[in-house]
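Re: Re: ligand-bound prediction request (bumping)

Still looking for help on this. To restate: I need the protein modeled with cytidine-5'-monophosphate bound, output as structure tokens. Inputs repeated here so nobody has to scroll up.
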Amino acid sequence: MTKQRRIVLGVTGGVAAYKAAELTRLMVKAGWQVDVVLTEAGAQFVGPVTFQALSGRPVYTQLWSPDVSNGMAHIQLTRGADALLVAPATADLIAKAALGLADDLLSTLISARDCPLLIAPAMNRQMWENAPNLRNIAQLESDGVAILGPDAGDQACGEVGLGRMLEPEELMLHLEASFQPKPLAGRRVLLTAGPTFERIDAVRGITNSSSGKMGFAIARAAWEAGAEVTIIAGETAQVTPPGCRRIDVLSAQEMLGAVESEVDDTDIFIAVAAVADYYVLNPSEQKIKKDAHILTLELAPNPDILARVATRDKPPFCVGFAAESENLLEYAEAKRKRKHLPLLAANLVQNAIGADDNEVILLDDSGETRLPHGPKLDVARKLIAHVAQLYGKGKTK
Ligand code: C5P
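Reply:
Sorry for the wait, this slipped through. Here it is.
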């Protein structure tokens, strides 16, 4: 059993406080314990009863609360907490936090915390760009506080620009990331993911059923581990994890082009894409008309993107995937050797393609490591931990 996460959620006086109610619901749904602290202005937007109903816990609004056994809510609440998140955070709260002011419960909690602090600003675009606010943000960042957002877009005041609070789902991703170790901090990870699409004519093509789920889960896990991540993605409906750069491509040739233009400063290259083995030699510009004759397509082999990267002069640490339908270990190890890979993740196609779960065996020079069957994100986090360990060893040689 993993320990239950405990979060302190500070809500200040911005209209985005209504989104903090949804955020509380998401945290409770994730099985976390949430203690909500409302500032006086926050309570003007959404009342404590809403947060109490959603969190199933008392809501704190005052520095001097007789409900807390020793009257020390400002110290007690963050003890043993995994994170203190302020969402939404006004310019006023940000200024107080940057200065270390402590004149209400939330600002005092921030000063007396012993857990990581994450701040999700929400304000009018001009307040955001106000020089003192940007100075305060820079100060907090250099103090090690995580600033989440803000986003650009329509604002409640009718203006458009930077200052919107991140959506609750995205804040959840940042919180979960804050719980993960950072063995890849400062590393650059390049990833291919999803299927490729080889054009036959103006409307048709050859593709495969790769969903991109595993590749995007690995991208997220690498970002959570502190890496700077670029995803070269074939056509997929997957949502880009926060903090990851995404370059969309269609064909294997395009994927190779994108990889080659990105790979130079890469520390780790992970090829998860299901790349078509062949492309159509002479795709038609126009839609091919149907007639009674047999249609023959001429196919030529695609370049092996991973093998090309792995055989460069100074290759990044390369990780390949092998989806096999039989003789998994034998075929996978042969593939690892043939492509000169320090690490290969092998899985059965029957288990992997399109599914939400996966079961992966890692093959490297010291043998095989079986990762437990589980959701693709869990598998991805374990894979990234293994990559980080092998990469770290290589660096210290
Ligand atoms: O040879 P096979 O296609 O089974 O190899 C799978 C591994 O090689 C995967 O990591 C895949 O992303 C990569 N690959 C590639 N370019 C290709 C074919 C496969 O990068 N043309």
